[in-house]
Amino acid sequence: MKAVQFTRFGPPEVLETVEVPIPKPKGGEVLVRVHAAGVNFFEVLMRADRYAVTPPLPVFPGVEVAGIVEELGADADPSLLGARVAVPLFAIARGFGGYAEYVAIDVGAAVRLPDDLSFADATALMVQGLTALHMVRRSPPKGRVVLVNAAGGGVGSLLLQLARLEGASVVIAAAGSEAKRQLALSLGADLAVDYTAEEWTGSVRTATGGQGADVIYETVGGDIARASLAALAPAGEMLFAAMGRFSLELSEIGSMLDMNQSLKGFSLLPLIAADKWKGDLAALFDLAASGGLEIVQGGRFSLDEVAEAHRALEERRVSGKVVLVP
After folding, report:
1. Which of the residues 75, 169, 191, 261 has the least number of beta carbons within 10 Å of its own beta carbon?
2. Band of pLDDT at residue 93, cut at 50, 70 and 90
């Protein structure tokens, strides 16, 4: 079968498609033919060795897939044969290997998909869907003015919808292109601002009567996170989810304390409870399948086009979810 690996860190060209044996499911496992594999921005950073964690080489990337069960190992549930399933590899202590034509996984890692949910849409609801879900749980938006940075991305496009569903009084989207801002408005944002413009936070304050946002969902880091502080209301909170890209100075944190503001960290993996993630995914799948949550697809690429998929994400040329279709 085909699989993607990289044996050194660097630009998208370090990704290579190789031939490896199709895995054989062991006892209690199933073999899944991959129909869609999700591509995430943290994988772009990891490939370039710019992520918070440096993995040992070689790396076979990919942490989320959706497909059909084609073979059963011993003691596997016979009803799973032919089932449409999602497999969040990151949730089962097996972080890699999804950029491939097949994966063998423990039966407990398979989550059945609703008939009306596509494989590609399912991939958008694993890393990115669970991230958005846990972010609104960690900083509840009900009755509050919220600012969603990178609102045209995979997490942001879901986050602004969940914030609206969870009762946010005002949803403000920040994005760097007109197309992404229009997308955010179509998904339910009340206002969309260009966070690449000078003094963009003034638009947020103007729209909120000078107060600013009660909650900022921050997934970008660097200069955007720093600039966002000017849009944060007194006693507001910033939920920071850009692992490895934290750059606030001590003086800026001190100013937040003076304003009774809070800075909260966010990392998905420690929040995924072994007894709850399957239920959370099933709920997201049902919500999307029923039309309550719109999935934005940012492009489909073959395994041989994986470098271009990474480049599209790295250059922020796409909105929503990027998937590989083996």
Report:
1. 75
2. confident
Beta-bridge partner residues of 265: 240
Most confident of 51-55, 142-146, 151-155, 270-274: 142-146
123 pLDDT exceeds 80?
Answer: yes
For every residue of 25-46, DSSP letters joined together read P-TTEEEEEEEEEEE-HHHHHH
Four-residue CA torsion sign, 69, 75, 77, 79? positive
Q: What backbone torsions phi and psi does residue 124 show, to the nearest 5 degrees?
A: -70, -15
Q: What is the dihedral of CA 204, 191, 241, 285, to 10 degrees?
A: 160
Say if residue 275's pLDDT is above 80: no
Q: What is the pLDDT of residues 4-38, one digit of tens each?
A: 999 999 999 999 999 999 999 999 999 999 999 99
Cβ-contact 293, 161 below 8 angstroms: yes
Give the ranges where the chain is alpha helix by DSSP (H). 41-47, 119-124, 127-138, 154-165, 178-186, 201-207, 222-228, 250-258, 277-289, 306-314
- Which among 114, 152, 87 is positioned nearest to 292, based on CA atoms? 114
Which residues is 322 bridged to in the sheet? 39, 299
Residues 226 and 219 sit within 8 Å (Cβ to Cβ):
no
148 strand-pairing partners: 173, 217
pTM of the model: 0.94
Q: Which residues neighbour 214 within 8 Å (Cβ) at sequence distance 6 or greater? A: 144, 145, 146, 233, 235, 236, 237
Quick one: what percent of the chain has pLDDT higher than 90? 89
Torsion 112-114-117-121 (CA) sign: negative
